[in-house]
UniProtKB/TrEMBL annotation:
The keyword Phosphoprotein applies. Keywords: Phosphoprotein. The keyword Phosphoprotein applies. This is diguanylate cyclase.
Amino acid sequence: QRALASREFGIGDPLALATAETGLDARILLVEDRPGSAERLAGALRQHHAVTIEPDPQAALGLAAEAGFDLALVSLDLDGFDGLRLCSQLRSLDRTRAMPLIMLAEEHDRARVVRGLDFGVHDFLMRPVDRNELLARARTQVKRKRFTEALRGAMQASLQMAVIDGLTGLHNRRYLDNHLGALFAEAGARRPALAALILDIDHFKGINDGYGHEAGDEVLRGFAERVRQHTRPVDIVARYGGEEIVVILPEAGLAEAQIIAERIRERVEAAPFPVQRATRSIPVTVSIGVAVRHAEDAEPGAMLKRADLALYRAKAAGRNRVEP
Ligand code: GH3
Ligand code: MG
Ligand code: MG
Ligand code: MG
C-alpha cells in the first residue's frame, strides 16, 4: 500500500530510498574524552563514516545543534560530567531531538543505561566495545534516521497532494471548504467584507465533443492558469467542479468583486487557448456569478449558493457575462 501511495504521488518508495542510501557516509559525533578510546572507535567508524571527536560536552551540544549529525555516540563517564545529562539535553532540544544517540557504558553503568533508554536514548554499547558491534549498531541507527526522514518527506508530499487538484494544480474543493470555513469563523464580530466568484466555462461540452476530452483537459489547464494570473496571492482559487472554478476574494465588496470578475471574463475571451492536437487555438468564454457575504449568513455555503444563482442568471442571459 505504501508503494502504491508513493507511486500515486510520484515520490518514490521511502523504504527503498532509505535502505539504498545506507551505503552510509553518515556524519557521526563522538563525545569521548579518553584519547585512546576515541581514536580506536573513530578509526573503526571512519571506514564508512565521517567522524568528529569532541571531548567537551558543552561544545558537543553546540556542535550537534549546528552541524546536523546523523548519529552521536556519547560516553557516560566523561571526566567530571554526567554523559547521561548530555543525552537528556540532546533529546530535549528541538535541533537535536531527531539525532540518534548511542551511549558508551561500563559494566557498572547498567542502571544509568536503563535510565537513558527510558528517556529515549536509542541504544548503548558496553566497553570494551566490539568493533563489529559498533559498526552494526551505528548502521542500524543511521538507517532508522534516514527511513524516518524519507517517511516524513513522503507524508508532507501526500498532505500537499490532498489539497491540490491534479489536473489544474489549483487548490481542490476540500481546501476551499476548509479555508472558507476558517475565514468565516475568524472574521467573528469584525466581519470584514468577503466575496465569492463562481466561474463556469460556456458550452464546454462542445469543446470536448469537437476536439476530444484531452483537448478539453488542456483548455481547462490553460483556463485555470489564466484565472490564477488575474487574481491576487491572497485570493483562494479552487477547482470547484468539472470546469468550474471558485475564487474567494478576502475583504472585497460587491463593486470590487465585479470589477475583478469582469477583468477575468475579458482576459479569458481575449485570447484563444492553444491545444496540442488542434491546428488552431480554441476560443473560450466564461460566465461568472458574483456574491458577497451577508451579515446574516450563518455559514459560507449561503454566499456560494447566491454566487451559483448569479451564475445561472449569467448563463440564462446569454453567457460570457458577469452577474451579481
Ligand atoms: P454551459 O455553458 O451551460 O456551462 O454548458 P457546458 O457545456 O459547459 O455545460 P456544463 O458546464 O454543465 O458541463 C460541463 C462539462 O464539462 C461536462 C463534462 O463532460 C465536462 N467536464 C467535466 N470535467 C471535465 C474534465 O476534467 N475534463 C474535460 N475534458 N471535461 C470535463
Ligand atoms: Mg454545470
Ligand atoms: Mg459550463
Ligand atoms: Mg459546469
